[in-house]
Every structure is written in structure tokens, then in C-alpha cells.
Design brief:
Chain lengths: 438, 1008
Amino acid sequence: MPVAASAIYFLNLRGDVLINRTYRDDVGGNMVDAFRTHIMQTKELGNCPVRQIGGCSFVYMRISNVYIVIVASSNANVACGFKFVVEAVALFKSYFGGAFDEDAIRNNFVLIYELLDEIMDFGYPQNLSPEILKLYITQEGVRSPFSSKPKDKPIPNATLQVTGAVGWRREGLSYKKNEVFLDIVESVNLLMSSKGNVLRCDVTGKVLMKCFLSGMPDLKLGLNDKIGLEKESEMKSRPAKSGKTIELDDVTFHQCVNLTRFNSEKTVSFVPPDGEFELMKYRITEGVNLPFRVLPTINELGRTRMEVNVKVKSVFGAKMFALGVVVKIPVPKQTAKTNFQVTTGRAKYNPSIDCLVWKIRKFPGQTESTLSAEIELISTMGEKKSWTRPPIQMEFQVPMFTASGLRVWFLKVWEKSGYNTVEWVRYITKAGSYEIRC
Amino acid sequence: MTGMRGLSVFISDIRNCQNKEAERLRVDKELGNIRTCFKNEKVLTPYKKKKYVWKMLYIHMLGYDVDFGHMEAVSLISAPKYPEKQVGYIVTSCLLNENHDFLKLAINTVRNDIIGRNETFQCLALTLVGNIGGRDFAESLAPDVQKLLISSSCRPLVRKKAALCLLRLFRKNPDAINVDGWADRMTQLLDERDLGVLTSSTSLLVALVSNNHEAYSSCLPKCVKILERLARNQDVPQEYTYYGIPSPWLQVKAMRALQYFPTIEDPSTRKSLFEVLQRILMGTDVVKNVNKNNASHAVLFEALSLVIHLDAEKEMMSQCVALLGKFISVREPNIRYLGLENMTRMLMVTDVQDVIKKHQSQIITSLKDPDISIRRRALDLLYGMCDVSNAKDIVEELLQYLSTAEFSMREELSLKAAILAEKFAPDLSWYVDVILQLIDKAGDFVSDDIWFRVVQFVTNNEDLQPYAASKAREYLDKIAIHETMVKVSAYILGEYGHLLARQPGCSASELFSILHEKLPTVSTPTIPILLSTYAKLLMHTQPRDPELEKKVWAVFKKYESCIDVEIQQRAVEYFELSKKGAAFMDVLAEMPKFPERQSSLIKKAEVVEDTADQSAIKLRAQQQPSNALVLADPQPVSGAPPPLKIPSEPQSVARTISQPNGTSSNIDPQAPSPDLLSDLLGPLAIEAPPGVVSTEQHGPTGTEGVPDEVDGSAIVPVGEQTNNVEVIGNIAERFHALCLKDSGVLYEDPYIQIGIKAEWRGHHGRLVLFLGNKSTNPLTSVQALILPPAHLKLELSPVPDTIPPRAQVQSPLEVMNIRPSRDVAVLDFSYKLGTIVVGAKLRIPAVLNKFLQPLQLTSEEFFPQWRALSGPPLKLQEVVRGVRPLALPEMANLFNSFRVTICPGLDPNPNNLVASTTFYSETTGAMLCLARIETDPADRTQLRMTVGSGDPTLTFELKEFIKEQLIAIPMGSRALVPAAAAPPPPVAQPPSPAALADDPGAMLAGLL
């Protein structure tokens, strides 16, 4: 087991320590000063997440307005450290009920200290599962007094669960209505050249589940991915179904998935934890369906005028629609005056990010929409550097559409008592970094 | 600024930003806003413009780039109302610098404001001009600013600003401002009653005077008057009195200005200035109030530098020293530091050293000060004030201090003690004592150079050897001695141990055993020295001592297989040699004397880090770059008379002359020598070698520069005595060599060496004369006068009256070429050593070819130019006969050496040479010169020469110059030929490695 941290610090953006916990004595108390002077106050802050100063390694990440810094002096496992931070933040979020930021930390000092004591011991990560920790760290985060009071429940035996065969699920749960929610969330990353060639494109997706099931159910999930389908056709000794099969890369599963059965039978079967969890993650690089096409034309007319024409085409099914579409069209720094004509939505110039921001609330499929703008620039004293033309960025959400084409084939629930369950399946595709060069 | 709500909202937004990121977003948003507003000219009211320009300034001050909107800022300058104008001026001076083109737009408006009647606008405009101060402003606005400064209708406020504005413009571009005839105006300005205007004008004066002090000599009495007025506290308003001191700033500035004038001739001015200085010196004391102290000490120290500069009477100097003496005994460390530092500066003035010596004990106390910077200053001062008389005390004091001193200072301290001991040793045995003590006390901090040096001295001075040997023997008796001490004593005992043989406990075998005891404790580098010592001991033992032999051989045997090659080689070789008998004696015979060489210690002392800018080390270093060979000199060290004996009569005569003249003993070499004395001195003149000096007497006889101060009856025996010394080397040859290169020795005799180093750029030249005193006595009444020919403008910085022993002074000489001519400038140089007066007239190598710049032309460039020069007087041709026969490549080299570049391959005839160069002078500017030499392969002694240039005089002079060079070759042949063939060897050549290898002493030193 690798050491992950000698100490952990939570700093705000100015570099003040909000909370810290030292797990080992091999780092001095003033190490965070070194972090402040050598990393926070220089330009290197955003460049490199791991830095070494005077024999100490600083592993840090920024989450909302908090820097979480791990200090380690021995040969620590950096990946383990990062995973620990991510998991710890997820844990805190589940305790605070949502947000994790400076104020949340300030409001929950005691709770955080208690959790920090529990989730790491002498630099080694311990159990970070919120379900289990919530059993015995029962102190509630501060909630508004108007919210409903939590009911008094008998304190369940935590030890049994932690040491049992199914460590992530409690025995004896019972729901009136047995429901399973399954979401497939994909984000599309794209970099396209100005001529429309795809330079880089991939989809990262995850399968999120929310289970409200009684007893100890056994679930089985079937997707239209290549391995699963091939296996199925093999087993049933009949030709594979026509239609697209998807090749998933880098699949990772939640710990509840029975990997031996996956390896032998190629089916995803599991006993779900109670409540919300992330069942699996995957990546797709081939055969991505791009939801939008963007055709920009930008003309620089002399030193003080520019014409921008952007056409956005939605290429998903006509019955679907995209929500919250934002197109950010970069303009030079010295932009002084802008004039827009848009077919749908609204556009305005945002000087603090040097972009024209064009927002369309609802964008139906198989349609197109254009923006044309005239831009006037102010003359400057500086060097006559040509404008670098950063790429156009896009944000959107398309419900019931998957860029990968992934579909849920079946979701079977099996429980001893044989109750009926309701299964809900949703798909959603979001923009990751969706960039088009212009 | 009131009522600009947008601005204050913006500022408070910025202040409320939590972090840098939020601030940047807010600023970017605001910049976008400003850009939009500036683009919409229709809605841009003056109020909005003003508001946004203020915001721009605020953003700029926050450190963000604001690269637009300058036009708007500049346009606000021409607004009619004050608030707009003010922001226009402020933002323009913050955002723009002198190179921006936008400023050209503003010049006219600014000028209107300056010549306008509104004095607030005038002030704004003057501030802008002063802050930006570009060439454009200087050229177009300086006359108006000057007018404002002298106008009587302006209020003092405006004139004050005008003076400072002009000062800035002048500092930035002195050539862009016409200050001809400003002397009178400055004189008037200095009569001003208002102290504010006066302070600003004095600042301006300081800048003007530093540029050209001659033109402003009329201001000198005025400065003195200002000082008098302030010193008497007459007419000084309350607001200019700072803690009871009348305007210290003005006092300091006036005194600073006075320091730019070389001297004060008018006796009454001088007298009143000295009265003022006296008053300052008397009136300054240390008080409780820090601010008052600061002000009064600023005045005092400026007064001190003025006193030093003016070479005041001894009485006043000693008063200064007494005052400083009071300072260094004060408790306050700052004051003590200043006192010590200024005392070090006072060392520059020769005749106060005795007075400073009175404070020696106090200075030595300062060595124990808790503050290290004070200790350093004290050490510095002690080092600087040390001379023959007090060397013993000071060195002993330093040795004592060494054992308690801080580690960081020890190395410097031991180095300094070693240098002082070496330089001022009253006798050599004392020197040896000191160094041995030094090694004993601070062995770790004694660098190798120090003990190398003592070995060199002992080797070179025979009478010292027994003493050194016995001393070394004594130190060996100590139980724990430093390794360096082992090295020194081993070396000395090996060489001279046999001299002690009679003394008890000093037989060879006893020496061997006591040295051998140390062997196990020493490190590898010391073992070879010990081995050599053993071999030497063995050699000196006559008759042979079999027992000792056995022991030593055992040691050699042991080291024959040592892993260190050096030790192994020595052991093997000594072992074999020791069996050789006579050969052994030969090889290990006593070391020959070392060649005299510069001490490396001094060089090291210069390297030692020192923070104070005026440290004694640096002063010394400036004065004497090479010395510390005092002891090895053939002359006795201290106070010995110079070798030349002179009849007593002229001595007294010379004294009677120089004394009534005071410090400046201008001796006119042209004065008629009276019969009586010339008779008396006759024999001397005959004895003198017929040096070149006498031939040099026939140089130009214009001595305009020397006023005949001596009465008609004055008796000046200089002319005759001049030739009493033997000139080393041929002056004419040295001159010719220097014509072709830029540095070398111009003149040398047994007492002085005059070196020269020159840099030439266009028609300007800068020569530095290095006057080095080679003797151990000071050279007094040193004078150097330049007798310039009509075509050169020469300015020689004053040469100090006295050159201390073994010191070197530098004297820069500025040369400007006005028009082409072959005449040469002459340096009339004289000095006195004891009672001998030596003088020489030396040609300064500022000859025609120094103003040439090599230029290589191609045939496309050459021929059109050549054809454009059509016949006389621009192009002259001459057949020269009697030329020294030279092969063509040699001749080409010769031409190149005087910076006339041969362009090979231009002329179709291989026997011809074509050359080009550029000539610089003030009247001609840069002028292209072309030349063609047609030689006759059958008869090398004649050639035809064609020279052309754009100026008839230049053509003629250049032709004559080349002719002279071609014919004059035999005369300077020895200097010329190598110069033509290869880069000329420097005259003061360091010993080449080959020479070193031949010299056994040098080899040993290398080994050590």
C-alpha cells in the first residue's frame, strides 16, 4: 500500500489555510508557505499539478474556489493521492448536500476534521465510501433550520457491513416502490479544422444509476457494445443482430460489478449499492455521431473592421432538440463595437473573455441557424501583431441522444422475493471541449 | 475629480475583488466598455472622455496593458477647462514616452500653454515636458522654457518648474538645447532672492557646469555668495530653514557646483569661500535630533569634499580631520561610519596623513566595533593610512586583532597585513617575523601567495637567510603548528638550514628528525616539499652522515610506491640522485634568485569584496597598479636619497623658487637661464647623456598656456637640469611605434614611466596618460602641459601636483581633430624628484592616420569615386624617389598598418596598389580618401603615387603623410617592420612562457 500523503491542506484562492491535517511528521508545518510563495504566487500554478520544492512533493488540484494540496516527502503514489482527493471531495459533497467551496468548509470545520481523521491513517487512504461513513459519522452538516428534520433511525452495526461480503450494501432495505434509474451521460470532445476536417474526436461516457430496491437484488445490464453482443450471439448460436455495434475503450466498473462473471460471460451483473452511484465509465474514439456542424467565416477588413459569419447545423434526429446551446466566437482584444444579426437566440459581446457569446435556448434537430456580426476595432499603440484566431467553442446538451450510439439492450432485476421493478433509462449528450478552428 | 461616479464605482469594484482573477475580469469588462465609448464619438462628451481616461490611468497603474486611447488622452490636453486639461497632461505623461509619435501632436498645444498667461496651465505643461523630456520637446520647447525661467513677470513657482524642466531636457539631450551665452543668464539667476528658484537654478547649474565648467566661471563667485548668504543666515525665510539649518539642499548643491571648477583663482572669493567652509566646519556638531544631524552632516560632508577638491591650507585640512576625529569617537554608529569613510577619502590629500595618524588609536578601537561595516571601514582606513612610519604599529595591531577577528574578515585581514608588511617593512627581518606570526595565528586564512612571497624574499636577500632559518627552527618547536608553517619552515630550512649548523639543536640530523615528526600530520601537497627538504639536508651534510643517509633513504624508499605521482617521482629521483655524489650537489645546489615580479597579493586585495565605493584599496589600486617589489629593489627601502647627487646650491635655489609660488609651482621652461646658475650647473649638463630630450626641445615653442608667474629675477634652472636623467629607450622610436598602435610607453627614465593608451572614434580621440612613479620617493611639482597645433583641440585633465612613491596616476586627454594637418601636439612635461628637476617635451601620437577609418571598397564603388575626383587640387600625383625598397605585400601591410586599406584586385596591373580610407575631422566630416601607388618592379626605390579626396588640404596632407611614411621607414624601421608583418608586440611585455621556462627560479615558483 503506497503512502498517499504526509499532510493535506485546504487553501483558498489567496493562499490562506482553511483546514489542514498532518498525517506524518516528516514534513514541516511551514511547508504550505513554500507552496504559497513558489507555486501560488507564480504563473506556474495552472501548469503542473505536481511540483517538488526542497525535497517535498506538492500534489494539488483546484476544486471550485479551494486548492487542495497534498504534501508528501517520501516516494508517494501520486495517482493514489489524486484519487484520494477526488473521492474525499465526493464524500464531503455528499455530507454537505451539494456544494464544496470555501464557505462550505468554513461551515463544517468539525465534521471535516472528523472525516479527515477517518479517511486516512498515517498517510494511507482508508474507507471513503459515503454510505458506510455516514453510518457512524452521523454528525449532520449545517442545514437550514427550515428543512425537514431527519428521522431518528436505529444505529446500524457498521462493522458487520464493512467486513461483510457485500460491503457496499446494507441488509434489510425495503421500499414500497422498487425503482431503478439509469442514465447514460456522454460528453463529446472535438477539435475541427476550419475546413471541416476532424482533427481530434472522442466521447467519454458514464453510466449513472440510482437504485431504490428492496433486499439484495441482482442486476444484469445489456448494452449494444461489441463484446457483449458477440458473446450473446455466440452463446445463443445465432447470427448477431443487424445494426451498429459499439466498441468501448477503457471500460472501468464500480466495485460492485462482478468481474469474474464479466470476464467469463461478458455480462455486467452486480448487486447495486443503495442510492446513487456510477456504474461504469468508458471512452469511444471511433464512429462518433457529431451533434452539431459549425461553418465559420471570418473576414478581417483592414485594421479596424471585421465580419463574422457563423452557421450552426444540428445533425441529430429531427424529433430531438438540444438545450442550452452556447457558441463562443472569439474576437480580437481591441474590439470596440459589435453589430449582430441572428436567426435564433441572442448574442452579445463579452469583453472579459474576448468572445461573442451566442446563446440559443432550444435548438431542434435537422435545422440550421446563423449569426452574422460586424465588428469594429479600436486602433492601438501596440505592436501590429496579427490576431491568433483562437477556436470557436460550443456548449450544448442533447437529451435522448448518444454521440456514441450506445443503447441499453436490457436491464434485468432479480431478487429472491421476486417483486416487480420499474426501470427508467435516460440518455444525454453534452459538449466537452467542442472546438472548431476558424 | 469629484462627481465622477462611474470612476469611484469602478475603483470600489476593483477593491472588492476577492482575487486576481476577478480583478482581471472586471478590468477586461471595463476596457471593453471604454473601447466601445471611444468608438462612439457622437456620444463622447468631454465629461465622459475625462472619466474614461482617468479609468484608463487607473487600469494602467494596476499593471494592465492599456494600448489604446492615447489619442483621446492627448486630445484632452487642448481642452479649455482645468479638470480636462489636468487629466490630459497626467495621463499623457504616464502612458506615453518620448518615442511615441502622438507626442508630436501635443507639442503645439503644450507650447501654447507654456507661452500662455495662465500659470496653472504653465505649470502643468512644464511638468509634462520635464517628465517626458524627449528630443522633440527639447528642440521645440527649450527656448520657451528658457524664456520663462528668466522672465521677471512670472511667479517663482513657474520659474522653479521651468528650471527643473530645463534641467531634465538638458540632461537628456545636452546637444539639443542651445546654452550658448547662458553663462550671463545663469549668473543673473543666481542673484535671485527666492530660495526655491535659487535651489532649482543651482541644480541646473550643476548640470551645466559638469558639462563645461569654463563657460560658467562667472557663476563661481555667485555660488560663493549664495553660500555666504546661507552661512550667515541672511534673508532666509522660515519655510526654507530645516531644523535651524538654512536650506541645506541649496548649500549642498552650491558646493557640488563649486567642485566642478578646477580651482578658484580670485583670492578674495577664495578667502570668503574658506570663511564659509570654516564656519560650516566649526558649526557642525553631533546633536540628538536625527533629522538635524542628517541635514547638517550632508552639508558637512559636501563641504569636506569641497575642501579636498580645493586643496585647502593644511590648517583647514587638519581642522577637518579633527572634526572627523570627533565623529569617529561618537557612539552613534552611522556617524562613526561616515567619519571613517570620509577620513579614508581625506587620505587622497597628501599632507593630512600626519594629522590622521593622531587618531590612529581611535581608529584601532573602531576595529573592535560590534558593527562589521564599521570594522571594515576602520580596517580600510588603517590600510590606507599606513606608511613607513606607522607600519610597525599598525601591522602589529592587525596581527593582534587577527586572533579575535571574525572569520569572514580574517582572510582579508591577513592579506592586508601581509601587503602592508611587505610594502613598508623597516627591515627585512621584521617582515619575516610578521609573516611567520601571521601564518602562526591565522594559518587557515593565509593564502599560498603570502608564503610564496616570503620565500621569494628570503631567497633574494642573502643577509636574511640565517635569520629566517633560525626563526623557522623556533616555530618548529611549537607543539601544534599549522600546515602552512610546516611548508615554509621546511622550505627555508632545506635551503638555509646548513647556515645554522653551529647552533645547538640545528644539526642536519636534528632538523631532519624534527621535520620528520610533522610528516604524518600533513596533507599530500606538503609531502613533496618535505621530501625536497630531506634531500637538501642530505646534500648539505658534509662529510656524509651515514646514519642520516639511512634514515632519509628509508623515507624515500617508503614513498617510492606512493599513489601520488608527484611524491613518487620525487622520492625515486632524490633517492637515485643521492647516490650520485657530485651530481647530487649540482642538482640540489641553492636556489637561484627569483626574478623580480609583481606581487600577486595586491591583485588579490583588489578582488576582495568591498562595498564602499571609495575604499582605500581602490584608491591604492588606482594609484599603484604594480609594486610591492620594494624589498627586492636594488635601492634601500626607506628614506634613502636618490642615487643622483647634486650640488647643494641649486637645491636651495630651487627650493626658494618653489616655495613662494605655493602649491602651484609653474616653472617656465622657456625662461632665460641666468648666467650665474648656468655656470654652476654647467658640469652637470655635460655629464648628462645626450638624450633625445634635448633634440625634442626644438619642438613648437608656443607656450601660450603658461603664464609667466615668476618674477623677472626668478632663476629657473630647469632647462639644464632636465637632462640629468638618462632616458630609457629612444623617444623617437617610441613615438613612431605609437603612431601605428594605440597603447604603449611614450617615455621612460629611471624615475617615471609615461604610458599611453588611446581610443579613436571618428574625429574624436581619448588618450589616457599613465604617469607611473618608479622610485620610492614622491615626485613633486609634476606638470604636464599640452602645446596643441592649430588643427587639434586638446583638453588634458589636470595632472596632480605630486605622484606618491610607486604610484601611478592617470590623466585623460581629449582630442578633437578640426581639420587635416600633419603637425603634432607636444606634451611639455616636468617633475621634481627631491631636488632634481626633470623635464621633457614629448610628441603626442595624435597624428593624421589616427583619424582614418579603414574602409574596403569594391570595384563598383571605387571607380566612380575615383573618376569623380578630377585632377588637382582634389587629386594629386607625385613621383617619389628614394623610397626604401619594399616588396608589394610588405608595402600593403604598411599601408594597412596606418589604416589605409589596400583593396586587392582592383587594379588590373599586379604591380599597383589601390587603397581607400575614411578621414574624420570636424570641418570635413567623414571624407572618403582614395590612393593609388604604381610601383616599378625594376626599380623598387621609386614609385608614382596618386591621392584623391574631396578636400584639397586633405589630399595634400595625406599625400605628404604617405610620402613621409614611405621615405621615413629607415628611421623607425625597427618599430615599423614587425608592426607591418604582425601585430606589434606590446612594449611592456609580460614575460613569455618560454622565458619562464628558461629561468630556474621561475620554474621553482611555478612548481610551488
